[in-house]
Task: structure prediction
Amino acid sequence: MTDIIIIGGGIVGLATALQIKRRRPDLSVTVLEKENRLAAHQTGHNSGVIHSGLYYKPGSLKAVNCIRGYRMLLDFCDQEGVPYELCGKIVVATKPEQVPQLNNLFERGQQNGLGGLRKLSGAEMREIEPHVNGVEGMWVPQTGIIDYVQVCEKYAENVRKLGGEIRLGEKVTQITAGNTLSVVVTDKATYETKLVVNCAGLYSDKMAQLTQRGEIDLRIIPFRGEYYKIRPEKHHLVRNLIYPVPDPNFPFLGVHFTRMIHGGVEAGPNAVLAFRREGYRKSDIDLKELFETLSWPGFQKVAGKYWQTGMGEMYRSFSKAAFTKALQELIPEVREEDLVEGGAGVRAQACDRRGGLLDDFAILESERAINVCNAPSPAATSSLSIGLTVSEKALARF
Result:
């Protein structure tokens, strides 16, 4: 019998295990990960940005956990020797009509307690990023770069030191709640546990349905984000991080430029519907999962509302010229031949039945389970804070 079973060996699951073991080393904790390595999906496919907490509604779970988690992450990395760099970023209004939204972001950042934010004229932006194009901008000094897979490995190392267990290559297939315990069945073993904590990312809704009686009111909709890499001879075009002003109605930040902690520069991502939950390539299709997405009433409402945006993203996915044109709004000197196909990630975006793309983290609780059902970006930055939040909910039961 295990006191707590955590499903998912990504950054949120590992951070939760660490925070539980730090507070209650006497409790037995087992992390189950279906892949043969940690951080195999969302965590291992993101762009490695340490987010400042600029974008999120003041008081929301995203704002509170990102700002608290930011400091916790940096403290952890300092203690454990995980390299990172606080290089800062600029957010760029490329058109005059984007300036009001830029001003809104500036005010939101101040409300979220970010010091050192600075409004920039076009000339001031080009002092920081000489090749950028824009009418106005904002300097965000807190933003940084890191390797989140390395962070996960350190979390796991600490979990094991504290007596926690991490089992790789075990896929959860069934969860049955009894009167006092839950039975968790994997493709290799059967476990009894007092509490299930679901941090399964792209399959968090599936796991939640196994732990709850009846239907849950959300689905994970997978959105693939594709990246290009900038050829080394053009790295000088980007000094650090350059972001556009995001569309306030869409939960994605738009294509941007990111200098990577291990060298190189990435450009992207777009945001296209993935045809399977772990669909990192255009050719990755799972007909059952695709049908589940397309038949979900909430997705149908999202598609009806954002079809033009979605078609534009899909066009950019298949047209390198269109992707380049989007990047040229920020850096006009970028040429199609400067871009080399890079990797891709899949964002687990929760969508409710009414067509709402959940903008905040979502944690659902039942009698013997805690389900983290929406934890896309900035979950990596926020991981220790989310882990603390979930651990407090878990330990209240012991």
